Amino acid sequence: MLAVFCLQSAVFGEEAKDIMKKVREKDENIGKVFKTFKMSYEKKAPWGFKGTFETLIKGDKKRMNNGSGTFTSDIVFDGKTYWSLLAFGGMVTKQNSKYYDDNDKGIYGWCKRFNDNVKLTGEETVADRKCYVIEGDGGEEYLKKIWVDKKTLSLIKAAGGNMKLVNSEFKSLNDDYEVPLKTDIFKEDKIDMAIVVTVLEIDKEIADSVFKVDAKTENNPFEGLFGK
Domain coordinates of the chain in residue numbers? Predict the structure, then answer.
């Protein structure tokens, strides 16, 4: 019985890694599938937090705008280099891909911090969708157990500790891509954060200047500090 259990766990673990790899590939291909991608959304919490965010993608260029406070930063990948642009003082700092992934709030941003230590524990139907059930550590309390749509690889639900996340009101972009227009995060069954997509556009013009960063030539004393 032990041998069978170990063999089954190994197979599930390998399948889970394959699933997460496919999710990451879908994320990487957004700029290839669509001419441009733009998503704006608003986050609100009952304890007073309110912020606006934006994801822009054009080819291999990406930008995340963060409107949640004075000491937050936008992040830009200009096709060669990752940059953070601090709202306060206009400081521009060179970063790396990990910094972008750790802060990614795009469609598949949830998958970025899972490592290969994930396990497929079964399949369940959630909101009339057949889902993979995967366990691992996604860097957030509620990202310990996730339900991933078998067809679109969208995150449908997540849970961990006393928290859970529920995505709903999905909008289809094509046969393979869809976006949840509403995300609710609960703590002890009470709403802790509500996220609503306010703008969702594909294949509309985005100026190249959006991804251009005017970096100063002198060395920044904080360069790379937040990307390690």
Answer: 2-227
pLDDT by residue (tens digit) across 31-61?
999 999 999 999 999 989 999 999 999 999 9
Q: Quick: pLDDT tens for 85-131.
A: 986 667 899 999 999 998 888 899 999 989 888 999 999 999 999 99
Which CA distances in Å does 9 have to 13, 14, 20? Answer: 6, 9, 16
CA distance readout (Å), 64 to 43, 59, 195, 224 = 15, 15, 16, 18
Q: What is the pTM of this model?
A: 0.85
* Cross-strand pairs, 62: 57, 77
CA distances from 132 to 112, 121, 129 (A): 18, 8, 10
Encoded tokens for 152: 């679109």
- How deeply is 183 buried, as exposed, middle or buried, from its count of CB atoms within 10 A (0-12, 13-18, 19+)? buried
E strands, 2-102, are 36-44, 50-58, 61-67, 73-77, 82-86, 92-95
**Which CATH code is given to the segment(s) 2-227?**
2.50.20
